[in-house]
Design goal:
The chain has helices at about 120-130, 140-145, 170-175, 175-190, 205-215, 235-245, 260-275, 305-310, 365-370, 375-385, 390-395, 405-410, 415-430; strands spanning about 25, 30-35, 45, 55, 60-65, 70, 75-85, 90-100, 155-160, 195-200, 220-225, 255-260, 280-285, 295-300, 320-325, 330-335, 345-350. The chain is α/β, with parallel strands linked by helices. The two termini are about 40 Å apart. Bound molecules: iron/sulfur cluster (SF4) (2 copies).
Length: about 425
């Protein structure tokens, strides 16, 4: 492990070579896709189809009720009902089952005509109806950032992909640089922003070169190289790096809206082709499988199906851990039956390591390296005492679950897990009308 100078950033062994130079594999489509009826913490959906209904690729299946997000069918076929199944949240959730008829019978689910003629407000409505979420893993509805956007100076496209193993953004950008610029322009228009900035790691020299060539014909989009450090892709760190500014809750407070690069690309495609986002590229990597790959699959494809199609688990590993996401921010899932959502950028499978946890040395490294500038060790100690005031005062709810405090800890303490528990304690207290 080598550390970068600078608080809140660290140089990690990227392990990106496992998949970066390989072609994306288009897998044969599965017979069944499972559409999760959950986005974020919300499981409150209006389901518009019933068991036995025929659906086209692009049929609106369901709508999230609290914050409007439509879900479209990624395949044509027959609705087989609702089934409980493991989800990337780590919990069993409802999924809508569609049996694929492999006819690829597609409809246009959107009503707008020429996307270039849409006003900013119409564009926000179109983004809302497309149902696009933060495709870098956040799952946050994109249109919400643009509704009533005021005094936006710049749209910042996060093309950093700083977490080890992950190369799905890179592979999408490598192939779709035109769409990246096009999608950036649509987002700039939606936000009334005069400037677009696409932030790419300096180590992706080929990509920077390609994007700079494509951007040369515009005078409103800049390609900016940023250090290869973790968590450079977290928007607070990225904004610090590029704009030298801080904000309280949202980047829009300082005139910036941040979107992920794949979000911009898939948005451009959806707007131009009037197609729902039905498929995506996902990195499936790690030493726990035989052949790490980037795969192109329909939304709702089960992870066990993907792993089987790319050659299976690594027989040399006695035990493995399956993570929805990357090794730093991903969530360990009890089995491989969960599915790819539109915002699943990766699945990481690692050999399980026995860690001999030792007592805290009070070295302060977790505090020094925390990019959220909070006190992980204090939060851990407060959480051990179930002390709500202590974890709240130490800023547990500002944690971005980057995993650095566990990674850096010389005593091999899972500090991030303790901070996660503290965050849940605060959230539960708020729900109950407490703090
Ligand atoms: S996981 Fe949370 S507490 Fe730990 S370093 Fe990252 S932001 Fe800080
Ligand atoms: S890094 Fe680990 S040992 Fe050091 S203060 Fe934090 S929890 Fe304690």
């Amino acid at each position: 492990m080598s550390l970068l100078s600078g608080i809140g950033k660290i140089r990690l062994n990227g392990k990106k070579e496992l998949t970066k130079s390989k072609q994306v594999l288009s897998l044969p489509e599965p017979e069944i896709v499972y559409i999760p009826l959950i986005i974020g913490a919300s499981t409150d959906f209006d389901v518009h189809v019933s068991e036995g209904d025929y659906v086209h690729k692009g049929t609106k299946l369901a709508t999230r009720k609290d914050i409007y997000v439509p879900l479209y069918s990624p395949v044509s076929g027959t609705v087989k009902g609702i089934e409980k199944r493991m989800h990337t949240s780590g919990k069993i959730q409802n999924h809508l089952l569609i049996e694929n008829d492999f006819k690829d019978d597609e409809i246009t689910p959107f009503s707008y005509d020429n996307p270039d003629s849409l006003s900013a407000e119409e564009l926000v409505e179109a983004i809302k109806e497309i149902g696009i979420l933060g495709l870098g893993g956040s799952g946050f509805p994109t249109y919400v950032k643009y509704q009533n956007a005021k005094n936006i100076e710049a749209v910042l496209i996060n093309a950093v992909e700083c977490e080890p193993y992950l190369t799905s953004d890179y592979k999408v950008m490598e192939k779709h640089s035109e769409e990246l610029l096009d999608g950036t322009h649509f987002l700039m228009k939606a936000g009334h922003a005069g400037k677009g900035i696409i932030a790419v790691k300096v180590t992706n020299k080929d990509l920077i070169l390609k994007l700079k060539e494509k951007a040369a014909k515009f005078n409103d989009i800049e390609i900016v190289g940023v250090p290869d450090a973790y968590p450079m892709g977290w928007e607070r760190v990225l904004i610090r790096e590029i704009f030298k500014k801080e904000y309280e809750r949202f980047p829009s407070e300082i005139g910036i809206i941040v979107n992920n690069a794949t979000t911009a690309i898939y948005l451009s495609e959806a707007l131009r082709q009037k197609k729902a986002i039905t498929h995506r590229i996902v990195t499936v990597s790690g030493e726990g499988i035989k052949n790490p790959e980037n795969v192109y699959v329909p939304i709702g494809t089960s992870v066990d199906y993907i792993i089987d199609k790319i050659g299976g688990y690594n027989d040399k590993c006695e035990e493995i851990v399956v993570l929805a996401g990357g090794p730093m921010m991903g969530k360990s899932i009890a089995n491989d039956q969960f599915v790819i959502s539109s915002y699943s950028n990766s699945v990481t499978i690692l050999p399980k390591k026995d860690t001999d946890e030792m007592p805290c040395l009070r070295c302060g490294l977790c505090v020094e390296y925390c990019p959220a500038k909070i006190q992980p060790v204090q939060i851990m100690n407060g959480e051990k005492m179930k002390d709500l005031d202590s974890v709240t005062n130490a800023g547990a709810d500002k944690c971005i679950t980057c995993g650095l405090c566990s990674f850096i800890c010389p005593s091999k303490i899972e500090v991030t897990d303790w901070v996660g528990k503290a965050k849940t304690r605060i959230a539960n207290a708020r729900k109950a009308g407490g703090k």
